[in-house]
Amino acid sequence: MFCLNRIDELQYTEHHDRIMEIFDSGIPLVRSVIIKNFTENFWNSPELQKPIWNYFSTIDVNNRSLLLNRLDKATNEILEDLSSELKVMTKNQLKIYLINLENKISINAMIIMNLQNFSKANKYTYAYLVQNFLEDRE
């Protein structure tokens, strides 16, 4: 953590692969430091940010929230991937995801299908949020 807090933007980019290895094996606190220290250049690069989103369903709830706070920088591919991970989101995380989708002019068919499937499943407590979102978009 000492090193992660002291390396600069260029070093984060140069050592991206190693930082992702640390993220993979790290404890939640280490993951939080990594997410918080990524620069705008990281979040503006689809190639650099894609690997971290792949961990979304396996990381702790707090780090999921940190990632979702950067959802405005996510690509459509990431939004689509996340649409199949709605079941792991808390109520507030799901709201953040849906608010981000509201800001999109169009939403691809796969995201819509995943949202519809989630909203129709009786086993998800927050399915009603997705159902309301879909109804409002009609």
Describe it for me?
- The structure is a single chain.
- The protein is an all-alpha fold.
- The protein has 10 helices and no strands.
- It has 2 domains: 1-74, no CATH class; 75-138, no CATH class.
- Helices cover 64% and strands 0% of the residues.
- Helix 3 packs parallel to helix 6 (61-68), helix 7 packs parallel to helix 9 and helix 8 packs parallel to helix 10.
Give a quick rundown of the structure.
By secondary structure, the protein is mainly alpha-helical. The protein is 64% helix and 0% strand. It is elongated and about 50 Å long.
- Given the structure, what is the number of helices? 10
Structural class category? mainly alpha
Tell me the radius of gyration: 16 Å
Helical residues, percent: 55-70%
**Low-confidence residue ranges:** none
Tell me the fraction of residues in β-strands, as a range. under 5%
Which structural traits does this protein have?
138 residues; mainly alpha; 2 domains; 64% helix
Topology record:
Layout: H1 9-14, H2 16-25, H3 28-37, H4 40-43, H5 46-53, H6 61-68, H7 76-83, H8 91-102, H9 109-120, H10 127-137
Helix pairs in contact: 3-6, 7-9, 8-10, 9-10
